[in-house]
Amino acid sequence: MSSLQSPAHIACIAFLALLFFPPHRLVRQNPPSSAYPDNSDWWSGLNSSGSDEAVNVQERELPPATFRVLGIGLSEEMFRRAAAKLGKTQILERGDASTGRSQACYVSSKGSPKTFLIFEQGEVDYGFYLFSDSRPWNGMDRCTPSALVSDEISIGLGLHLGQSPAEVVAILGKPSRRSKDELLYSLHAKKKNSPEDLRSARQANPDMSDSEFHENYDFYDLGVGILARFTNFRLTYLSISKSEAT
What pLDDT, on the 0 to 100 scale, is given for residue 214? Predict the structure, then answer.
């Protein structure tokens, strides 16, 4: 469901160069949580402001399945649904304001190297990380083991760890930026709000004129960020993030 809050410019989308969308309501779920006042979570796109290098924002969409892993979609419900499917885990809290992030970590219970699946909610976006890099970070010991987590997890139309850059491009299309060991995607689409969302927004804004209401709420912006990293030309790290805002 899209966010239906008043417009305001904010910096958005994880590891990307800045896309500008209005703020999305941050919902903390699945307590208890534990605070970690550091940026040791090297895999998170929210632990820094990102690169200043310009990124080409593409006006296109990806299939909805791109934003689901193990049947868990990117939404306000993802922590609850992850707990129901993969087991309860402690939510780790890091940063504040625009870098504030809540994280739920799961790790493969079999095999080596370990595979990590981490769900993350920030101020304006939802995302997940899938990687087989075991570089340590504070809170790593809080990851919950699960037999469902492995390097064989398939996302979207067949995206999975171990693929070559060419295979990833064949699935996701031309990247916004490409380097030797990375593919970065920055996507945007203008989407029409559903009748249900419009009714909710109208109830929340009864004094707004019809013209002002339709100008502000008929459509919302869908921002998507995907980062794929490769080791020896094989996918070892994948981050997928999206933001929906009026």
Answer: 65
